[in-house]
């Protein structure tokens, strides 16, 4: 059963999402806390994972990141990774007060941008007893340099500087597309063809609150974000990492390199697909049961 929920952050922003009750369980149950990746909202297949976990006996708390979707917060489209990490931890704190959550059996799940966030959360917050990180960002700067040509990167930094000066002068933050809409050479945050196909494809029939824009400052913060630096500190919390072998958005070889830096207990699942394929079809049918097993094993 799914119910709408909302909770307040420490700075007074209301975050909204869903709580899934685990099938066959009454009262306090293990819980998985999840949020989505860069600009994405919970309707972009988080419900499929949540339903699968709930059918396997786990409660799930899925919510929209601040400034996105059903959640409050301004400026709209601002994606601050460290604020999103603090909000994950607030979600855990709030869930621990609810009658349906076993406060000692909480896991975290993240994908893409939030796949990086859960690495940091698990390293810093020992209330987390298990983590699944799917197709994660592990190094913002290195990943950005894979996505953006060197000659274009200098121009991007000039855009960052101009935006900073404009904000200091009292202007609103500059905005940028998440994915290109008409031409592949349009300025955007995620300049891959599969990003275009995912965000501007059939998913829009489900994710009606998604908007194809974020603040330019969000891209700057992306380039400054290094969640993989925390991966060696996650142990002894159990870590499962799911990598898409054909991923060229959060590039697979870089993710695999960082996985080797993690300490046990850990498990790696490599899917023979691209980044966005991990949410659907045969990849989901293979991955979701493995993730459920991981949480069942370590949350009890």
UniProtKB/TrEMBL annotation:
<dbReference type="Pfam" id="PF02129">
    <property type="entry name" value="Peptidase_S15"/>
</dbReference>
<feature type="domain" description="Xaa-Pro dipeptidyl-peptidase-like">
    <location>
        <begin position="11"/>
        <end position="276"/>
    </location>
</feature>
<protein>
    <recommendedName>
        <fullName>Xaa-Pro dipeptidyl-peptidase-like domain-containing protein</fullName>
    </recommendedName>
</protein>
<keyword id="KW-0378">Hydrolase</keyword>
<comment type="similarity">
    <text>Belongs to the AB hydrolase superfamily.</text>
</comment>
<dbReference type="InterPro" id="IPR050261">
    <property type="entry name" value="FrsA_esterase"/>
</dbReference>
<dbReference type="InterPro" id="IPR000383">
    <property type="entry name" value="Xaa-Pro-like_dom"/>
</dbReference>
<dbReference type="InterPro" id="IPR029058">
    <property type="entry name" value="AB_hydrolase_fold"/>
</dbReference>
<dbReference type="GO" id="GO:0052689">
    <property type="term" value="F:carboxylic ester hydrolase activity"/>
</dbReference>
